Amino acid sequence: MGVAGQNTAGASVGFGFNPTTACTGTYAAGTMANGTYSVGTMGWVTSLGGSGTFVITACTNDRVAGTFEFVAEPNTPTGATGSVSVTSGVFDVPRSNQ
């Protein structure tokens, strides 16, 4: 399952997670979830040694909601450098089974 968004300045944040049977719960980056942050063509990801937590508080047939925070490491082929911290993330989005 994935969630993504973009601001008007062109920065985007997203994450994907592999829900358990219950769907709600806490997912750690690198084991059951991965976070991404990008600006233009540069990208940072948790799968390259980053860390973080994704908490799914509601998961129904119609919506998914929760919070997230993570530290992503640069995907160097994209030109990204240094770590990026994403904090205080909140989402409540319609669920699509596509």
How helix-rich are the residues, as a percent range?
Answer: under 10%
- Gyration radius from CA atoms, angstroms: 13 Å
Number of strands: 8
Structural class: mainly beta
Mean pLDDT: 90
- State the shape: globular
Strand content: over 45%
Biggest sheet features: 8 strands, antiparallel
Q: Termini distance?
A: 10 Å
Poorly predicted tracts of residues: none
Secondary-structure element string = EEEEEEEE
Number of helices: 0
Characterization of the model:
- It is built from no helices and 8 strands.
- A hairpin with a 4-residue loop joins strand 1 and strand 2 (about 10-15).
- The protein has a domain at about 30-95.
- Strands 1, 2, 3, 4, 5, 6, 7 and 8 form an 8-stranded antiparallel β-sheet that branches.
- It is mostly beta strands and about 100 residues long.
Protein traits:
globular; 8-stranded antiparallel beta sheet; 98 residues; mainly beta
List the helices and strands and how they pair.
Blueprint: E1 2-6, E2 11-17, E3 25-28, E4 33-39, E5 42-45, E6 51-59, E7 63-74, E8 84-94
Antiparallel strand pairs: 1-2, 2-4, 3-6, 4-5, 5-7, 6-7, 7-8
Summarize the structure.
The protein is mostly beta strands and 98 residues long. It has strands spanning 2-6, 11-17, 25-28, 33-39, 42-45, 51-59, 63-74, 84-94. It is globular and about 40 Å long.
